[in-house]
TrEMBL record:
Start and end residues of each ABC transporter domain: 1-66
Organism field: Klebsiella pneumoniae
InterPro entries, alphabetized: ABC_SmlMolc_Importer (IPR050093), ABC_transporter-like_ATP-bd (IPR003439), P-loop_NTPase (IPR027417)
Gene that produces this protein: thiQ_4
PANTHER family (UniProt xref): SPERMIDINE/PUTRESCINE IMPORT ATP-BINDING PROTEIN POTA, THIAMINE IMPORT ATP-BINDING PROTEIN THIQ
GO MF, one annotated term: ATP hydrolysis activity
Enzyme Commission no: 3.6.3.-
Pfam families: ABC_tran
Protein name as it appears in the record: Thiamin ABC transporter, ATPase component thiQ
Enzymatic class: hydrolase
Keyword Cell membrane appears in the UniProt entry: yes
Superkingdom of origin organism: Bacteria
Keyword annotations from UniProtKB, A to Z: Cell inner membrane, Cell membrane, Hydrolase, Membrane, Translocase, Transport
Record flagged with keyword Transport: yes
Length: 72
C-alpha cells in the first residue's frame, strides 16, 4: 500500500487487524464480517516496523505472544 503521510494507510491496517473499530459499515475479510472479531482471532496478522522483542523472554515466548495455542 502506498500513499502520502496522512492518507490513512496505518488507519486501514489498524482497522483490518482489529486494533480500531470501524465508525460505520462492515469489515469483510474473505467475505466474512469481522467487526466484532477480536484481533487475536482474525485471519490476519500485523507486523510492526519497530523491533519490539522482550529481552527477558525467549525467542519462542516472543513469537507466541498473542496466541494462546502457539506454545502447545
Amino acid at each position: 500500500m502506498l500513499g502520502p503521510s496522512g492518507a490513512g494507510k496505518s488507519t486501514l491496517l489498524n482497522l483490518i487487524a482489529g486494533f480500531l473499530p470501524p465508525a460505520s459499515g462492515s469489515l469483510l475479510i474473505n467475505g466474512e464480517a469481522h467487526n466484532a472479531t477480536p484481533p487475536a482471532q482474525r485471519p490476519v496478522s500485523m507486523l510492526f516496523q519497530e523491533n519490539n522483542l522482550f529481552n527477558h523472554l525467549t525467542i519462542r515466548q516472543n513469537i507466541s505472544l498473542g496466541s494462546t495455542q502457539a506454545l502447545n
